[in-house]
Amino acid sequence: GAGTSRAGSLPGQPQWPADVHAALIALGWNVREADEAVNQVAAELARGEAGIDGNDTSSLLRAALRLLGPR
Q1: Span 57-63, average pLDDT
Q2: Residue 43's CB: how many other CB atoms inside 10 A?
Q3: What is the pTM of this model?
């Protein structure tokens, strides 16, 4: 093998998508919903929208929860 790899932590890639995804799953959202929310937050972050701090996982999680709406 070429070594080990951790899910969601490829070299040069941010850790927050895996962290937010795992948190959403732990909060009861399904994988598809978590995937969509992470993708939407990433798109907002790339556009510089909504005042999201890309270095603050908790603000990224709040943004994902806002997108998902009430449970």
Answers
A1: 94
A2: 10
A3: 0.79
Q: What is the dihedral of CA 38, 44, 50, 51, to 10 degrees?
A: 90
Q: What is the pLDDT of residue 70?
A: 85
Using the structure block, give the residue that is written with the tokens 């909060």: 27
Q: Rounded to an integer, what distance in angstroms lies between the CA atom of residue 62 and that of residue 71? A: 14
The set of long-range contacts for 59-68, using a CB threshold of 8 Å and a minimum separation of 24, is 60/16, 60/20, 61/19, 61/20, 61/23, 61/24, 64/20, 64/24, 64/34, 64/37, 64/38, 64/40, 65/24, 65/27, 65/37, 67/37, 67/40, 67/41, 68/24, 68/29, 68/33, 68/37
CA distances from 10 to 34, 45, 58 (A): 19, 19, 21
Neighbouring C-beta atoms of residue 22, cutoff 10 Å: 13
